[in-house]
Amino acid sequence: MGGGTRVVVVGAGFAGLAAADALRARGAEVTVLEARDRVGGRVWSVPFGDGAVVERGAEFILPDYDVMRSLAARFDIPLILKGTPYGRRTTIGEEAVGDADLETAFERVRRGAPAGAASVGEAITALALAPRQEALLRTRVAISNGHPVDDLDVSVLAESASTFGDFDNWTLAGGNMRLADALAEELGDAVRLASPVRRIRWSEAGVSVATDEAELDADAAVIAIPTAPLGEIEFDPPLEGATASALRAVTYGQNSKLFIRLLAAAPPSAIMSVAGHFWTYTQLGTDGEPAPFLVSYSGTRAAIEALGGGEAPELWVAATLALRTDLDLDPDPAAALLSSWDEDPWVRGSYSARSLASPIRDADLQRPLGPLFFAGEHTAGAWHGLMEGALRSGRRAAEQLLESRP
């Protein structure tokens, strides 16, 4: 199985690279086509300030990220403890919720959604919490998913419950993108950057994949890109049926990050603004000392636009400074870094959201169409929206492909 099989992988994010890695390990001949001039997709580590590295995209490695941990160990990339209380984002001032009340809210969520609730918004209301507790939960879930709680399927509340409370979290030393770089380095010349796919002809006999520069023939393809750019590829014949309609139905959340330089060291923290609809956090650096920056994170299109969108970071900088009066932050908006994935042509969103109106159809998204196999965090079932999910989806698609070969 796999030996001599020719495969084109579309996309060099975590999903595509994981698929290519698994296929290569089983003897397949792999070519990876990536539209960007870098690998990593929504994992993008960049320099910021004086020697620091920040994550413009996916950031937190959580305790159950077994695939990501094993790959990091394989490439000798250390995990760095962040120290950020990711699961216990607190509110302050007039919005403050005490530790006991916060724990009560967490516990009620852990018991499960009330019967009859269809959306997260309905479920949180039915928990009959105090107004501040309810507002905190609604805001936190909306920010994390980048999507309004009244259009998030009630199952998201159970997904969210696993991230409430106290647990450690990590990033990779030097940035999470190091893992993508390491996988790509092993693949060598098989990875072709700046090669957006324009057309895919396919039949039971194989595929022909065209970029602006070349056309490649193969036995099969793994499609590991978000659904917006996928929809702009010309498929011959067109994609039809349950898989195709499920791909068209995927809804993406909208999230933005703002990085502000710290003028004085600050220990790890996680403070949320309910009114401003964003949370802020500080963390440890590679040396175990406080990192020299703060991250401000918002979600939902309405919240991002209220903070100035991609055009006016000064509004968000001012709101962050007003919230975090405990920190010595650089007030200059020109020194801040704003990262918004809705402006990226190869994503146009942050990560998949379980919209109530347009559900993620997990089984259909994982179903191949002839020689076409689909990967990406949006196909990862319970792991959707996560780096771990992207990696797992790539391995799953590779296994499906290999099992389909004689």
Notes on the protein architecture:
By secondary structure, the chain is of the alpha/beta class. Among the domains are: 165 residues, FAD/NAD(P)-binding domain; 69 residues, no CATH class. Helix content is 31%, strand content 21%. It has 13 helices and 20 strands. Strand 9 and strand 10 form a beta hairpin. Helix 1 runs parallel beside helix 7, helix 1 packs parallel to helix 13 and helix 4 runs antiparallel to helix 5. The longest helix is centred in the C-terminal third of the chain and has 18 residues. 50% of the residues are buried. The model has no long low-confidence stretch (mean pLDDT 96).
Distance between the termini: 7 Å
* Helical content class: 25-40%
- Strand residue content: 15-25%
CATH homologous superfamily heading of the domain at 6-42 and 177-251 and 352-404:
FAD/NAD(P)-binding domain
**Main beta sheet strand tally, sense and closure:** 5 strands, parallel
Mean pLDDT: 96
CATH topology of the domain at 6-42 and 177-251 and 352-404: FAD/NAD(P)-binding domain
Question: How many DSSP H or I helices?
Answer: 13
| Alpha carbon gyration radius | 21 Å
Write down how many β-strands occur, each being a DSSP E stretch of 2 or more residues. 20
Shape: globular
Explain briefly what this protein structure is.
The protein has 406 residues and is an alpha/beta fold. It is built from 13 helices and 20 strands. Among the domains are: 165 residues, FAD/NAD(P)-binding domain; 69 residues, no CATH class.
Topology:
Layout: E1 6-10, H1 14-25, E2 29-33, E3 45-48, E4 52-55, H2 66-74, E5 79-81, H3 99-110, H4 120-126, H5 131-145, H6 155-161, E6 170-172, H7 177-187, E7 191-192, E8 197-203, E9 206-211, E10 215-218, E11 220-223, H8 227-230, E12 234-236, H9 242-249, E13 251-252, E14 255-261, E15 269-273, E16 278-282, E17 293-299, H10 301-306, H11 313-323, E18 337-340, E19 352-353, H12 362-365, E20 372-374, H13 387-404
Parallel strand pairs: 1-2, 1-11, 2-7, 8-12, 11-20
Antiparallel strand pairs: 3-4, 5-6, 8-9, 9-10, 13-19, 14-17, 14-18, 15-16, 16-17
Helix pairs in contact: 1-7, 1-13, 4-5
